[in-house]
Amino acid sequence: MGMRDPRVDAYIAKSAVFAQPVLEHLRTLVHKNCPTVEESIKWGMPAFLHHGMLANMAAFKQHCTFGFWKHKLVVGADRYSEDASMGQFGRVTTIGDLPAAKVIAAYIKKAAALNEAGVKVEKPKTKRAPPSVPDDLNAALKKNRKALVHFKAFTPGNQREYVDWITEAKRAETRSKRVAQALEWIAEGKKRNWKYENC
After folding, report:
1. Is the Cβ–Cβ distance between 54 and 48 less than 8 Å?
2. How crowded is residue 182: how many other Cβ atoms within 10 Å of its Cβ?
3. Where in the chain are the domains?
4. Edge-to-edge strands, sheet with 38-42
5. pLDDT confidence of 101, banded at 50, 70, 90?
6. Is residue 112 exposed (0-12), middle (13-18) or buried (19+ Cβ within 10 Å)?
7. What residues form DSSP beta bridges with 46?
8. Considering just the CA atoms, what is the radius of gyration of the chain in Å?
9. CA-CA distance, 103 to 188, in Å (whole number)?
10. Do residues 7 and 38 lie in contact, with contact meaning Cβ atoms separated by under 8 Å?
11. Fold observed for domain 6-116
12. Nearest Cα residue to 90 out of 26, 158, 141, 98
């Protein structure tokens, strides 16, 4: 049997009057079509879990949203998937804005089956360019071969942490202190946040 979370009851009760029947309708459909679903609050909104994230819903001042975690695999190219940021059904203000209950039921069952099968959604790999190293850090690295070798061996993300830390300094004095500190740590092969790596 699924588990209901009293925080979801409170969320629905605090939602706008128009949103309450919509959220209750969606909640009922999820529990009916995935009886072992568990509720939670994630990112400040009701979430439904079944072998991982299944779906979530939210209420705003003038509309509600409902979306599946693996929306592209669940709803595919259906007209409801056009704006994933608004859930798969767009801006919902009444139950009539939603597809028929049997359509949503089929989606819920499909989402549950995907989770049970352990299907993962492939995230697009974004490759960021290495950061632009500021002149003062670059000059300091060139004077310290050991630091330069380590810095070049760092991932672009690790390099960016040092660059951001140095360039965010508001005063020249602070910036020069950070360059000196960075050079010391880099020469030892330490990443910018090395102190927190083994916490």
Report:
1. yes
2. 22
3. 6-116, 135-193
4. 38-42, 45-49, 53-59, 64-68
5. very high
6. buried
7. 41
8. 25
9. 59
10. no
11. Aspartate Aminotransferase, domain 1 (3.90.1150)
12. 98
